[in-house]
Design brief:
Number of helices of chain A: 13
CATH architecture of one domain in chain A: Orthogonal Bundle
Helix content of chain A: over 70%
Radius of gyration of chain B: 24 Å
Structural class of chain B: alpha/beta
Largest sheet of chain B: 10 strands, mixed
Oligomer: heterodimer
Structural class of chain A: mainly alpha
CATH class of the largest domain in chain B: Alpha Beta
Strand content of chain B: 15-25%
Strand content of chain A: under 5%
CATH superfamily of the largest domain in chain B: Periplasmic binding protein-like II
Helix content of chain B: 40-55%
Distance between the termini of chain A: 54 Å
Shape of chain B: elongated
CATH superfamily of one domain in chain A: MetI-like
CATH topology of one domain in chain A: MetI-like fold
Number of strands of chain B: 13
Shape of chain A: flat
CATH class of one domain in chain A: Mainly Alpha
């Protein structure tokens, strides 16, 4: 017995000794590390190739047109075509999303986290919201066509497009990002330590007071980050807009059109411009104008994502 | 607490900026457009144009040029497809319907049912180009039976060009046997007018004779984006497919047009052969004008006048289609406001 133990100890010592002295003798950790690095290089490489390709293709347009590419409106003449109409459309859609999805989404999150009892029904709602966030965007487009377009027409805002206008588009996009707003807000509220709430209750605050002056201020940075990212999503989506009748040709409002006429008339958005240019007969559109529009879209998205990161870093709280 | 206040202020600022952009947009658009106008015409009103996606580029170019002359007129041009366009047109929703085929009798009835009379204007021709890769030097001409053997409903499963040899022999196709090479087909999808035209012009007669459905083979790479089809055809040395002439014109360095034999020898697509009708697979392009609105809407009259003017016709070339040999007949139809279908 004792002999066995000693020889076991002996063996262990030898094993440890070998492992320490030989260092790189075992190839497996190295191989694993290499594999991980390869995965990183692959994904980063794809990104670099994609960006290089787009920027190279877009370069002639950027060089020839400069900033006027951003300030010129919709056109089928390659020399005068610009993305301004699309930027305006996307900004209006994003504004409608901010006005509709943010208040509703954040309120729903506060209710689910702070008020709703933790029972089967609440968990069902929670799971459903999470599943909704994964529904393909085209499905929301169909929802918009079936519900929001008639809704907009019904409340008298159909205009010359019969409801297939930017208002319906904005509402559809709001519905699309709503689950994401709710989820990110829930996560942000959940990350507020229970001690903060307890301290509030401890000094006699009501639930409303605790939420208003303790939970919400602490959760706000996280909520803001999430909401800015959903704005980026609303900026980049194409499919739902194509379903609910975004204009792909040319349009211009009448000279005497009011703001309401313009809002209820035809519209377009930045990613839709990329889509419709890529199928034009004139080669210049698919070859260099569409990539240039992609560059503009990417810059907008980088700015929005940058804003989200900046907000997060600035407002980050350590407990 | 001050930090939270700052964040709240920032959020408010973002919302404000967004709102400001939204409300400013109307103003900015107006000034841009007004500045771009050549002259301040007194013409006002609105024009709604829908229909064929093939015609859309011509109409969009014309609408844009027209808008620059008449900056007070509101215009929208879209291209959901010829059939969808006629649905809106016959419901009275649009002033002009673009079409890449003549109106069907069913659609004439639908228009008549809602009391809408139309003026039919044939203004250009589009040739369908049968394409292969520039490095394919074995195939230079195909007849209708050849195309039926390679692309028709009975060609399902043919992965090699010479798989079609037996069927081609049965049909008496002129250019069989085909090379022993992979057959890679990329073409428009069924929803496209270009698909309909190809089936109607090339496959239908032979399919009727043989008692098969007038459709193409279903097993090919389909795309609604013609530039994607060009990529597919250029991407394989032994490819086959078809697109509208305009897309061939823009990509002549990357794809080769196969000559087509409609019974009178091999003809390659050129503006001359398409305009003269010698090239066997071409289709007319139309605009249909709502006759009642042509009486009441001055902007509509000016727009169609522009469409048929030299400046308007120049946009046919720009979009890659082919002008008619003679414009006197169509101008006469327009001047006399002749309604109904015409014979060609």
């Amino acid at each position: 017995m004792s002999i066995t133990t000693r020889s076991n100890k002996e063996a262990t010592r030898r094993e440890v000794d070998r492992a320490i002295r030989s260092g790189g003798g075992d190839w497996r950790p190295l191989a694993f590390q290499g594999l991980l690095l390869l995965a990183l290089i692959t994904s980063f490489g794809i990104l670099v190739v994609l960006l290089t390709d787009i920027v190279t293709n877009a370069w002639p347009t950027i060089q020839a047109r400069g900033f006027s590419f951003v300030t010129d409106g919709l056109s089928l003449n390659p020399e005068t075509a610009g993305v301004f109409t699309g930027i305006i459309g996307s900004v209006i859609i994003a504004s409608i999303v901010a006005l509709l999805a943010f208040p509703i989404g954040i309120s729903a999150a506060v209710y689910l986290e702070e008020y709703a009892p933790d029972n089967r029904r609440t968990r069902f709602v929670d799971t459903t919201v999470r599943n909704l966030a994964g529904v393909p965007s085209i499905v929301y487009g169909l929802l918009g066509l079936a519900m929001f377009v008639p809704l907009v027409r019904m409340i008298g805002l159909g205009g010359s497009t019969g409801g297939k206008n930017i208002l319906a588009a904005g509402i559809t996009m709001a519905a699309l990002v709503l689950p994401i707003v709710i989820i990110t807000s829930i996560e942000a509220i959940r990350s507020v330590p229970a001690t903060i709430r307890e301290a509030g209750f401890g000094v006699g605050a009501t639930q409303w007071e605790v939420i208003r002056s303790h939970v919400m201020p602490s959760a706000l940075p996280g909520i803001l980050t999430g909401t800015v990212l959903t704005l980026a999503r609303a900026f980049g989506e194409t499919a739902p807009l194509l379903v609910i009748g975004v204009a792909t040709g040319y349009f211009a409002p009448a000279g005497d059109a009011s703001i309401l006429d313009r809002l209820t008339g035809p519209y377009t958005a930045l990613p839709v411009i990329v889509f419709s240019w890529s199928r034009q007969t004139q080669a210049a559109f698919a070859d260099t104008l569409a990539p240039a529009a992609i560059v503009v879209l990417l810059i907008v998205l980088f700015l929005l994502n940058g804003a989200a990161i900046w907000l997060r870093n600035r407002a980050e709280k350590r407990w | 607490m001050s930090k939270q206040l700052k964040i709240a202020a920032m959020a408010a600022a973002i919302a404000l900026v967004a709102a400001a952009c939204a409300s400013a947009s109307g103003e900015t658009t107006t000034t841009t457009v007004a500045a771009g106008g050549a002259s301040q015409g007194a013409l006002a009103g609105t024009l709604a144009i829908s229909g064929s996606s093939t015609v859309e580029p011509v109409s969009a170019l014309n609408a844009e040029a027209f808008r620059n002359i008449n900056p007070e007129v509101g215009i929208s041009v879209e291209g959901p497809g010829t059939g969808d366009g006629f649905k809106k047109f016959c419901a009275g929703e649009t002033d002009v319907s673009d079409a890449s085929r003549q109106i069907k009798d069913k659609e004439v009835e639908a228009c008549a049912a809602s009391g809408i009379e139309f003026i039919e204007l044939r203004f250009a021709i589009d040739g369908l180009s049968v394409l292969t890769s520039t490095s394919n030097d074995q195939i230079s001409c195909l007849s209708f039976p050849d195309l039926y053997a390679l692309l028709g409903p009975e060609s399902i499963g043919f992965r090699n060009w010479n798989d079609a040899d037996a069927l081609a022999a049965e049909l008496g196709a002129a250019n069989a046997p085909y090379p022993d090479a992979e057959l890679v087909v990329t073409a428009p999808g069924e929803e496209s007018g270009t698909y309909d035209s190809f089936v109607e012009l090339v496959l239908e007669d032979i399919a009727d004779e043989r008692g098969t459905d007038a459709v193409s083979r279903p097993d090919y790479t389909a795309s609604a984006n013609d530039n994607v089809i060009i990529e597919g055809i250029a991407g394989s040395d032994t490819s086959l497919g078809w697109v509208g002439y305009a897309f061939y014109l823009a990509n002549q360095d990357r794809v080769k047009a196969i000559e087509v034999d409609g019974g009178d020898g091999c003809v390659s697509p050129t503006p001359e052969t398409i305009a003269s009708g010698d090239y066997p697979i071409s289709r007319p392009l139309f605009v249909y004008v709502n006759a009642a609105k042509a009486e009441s809407n001055a902007a509509l009259v000016e727009y169609i006048d522009f469409y048929l003017s030299q400046d308007g016709l120049a946009n046919i070339d720009k979009a890659g289609y082919v002008r008619l040999a003679e414009y006197a007949p169509v101008r006469a139809i327009w001047e006399n406001r002749t309604t109904g279908k015409n014979e060609y």
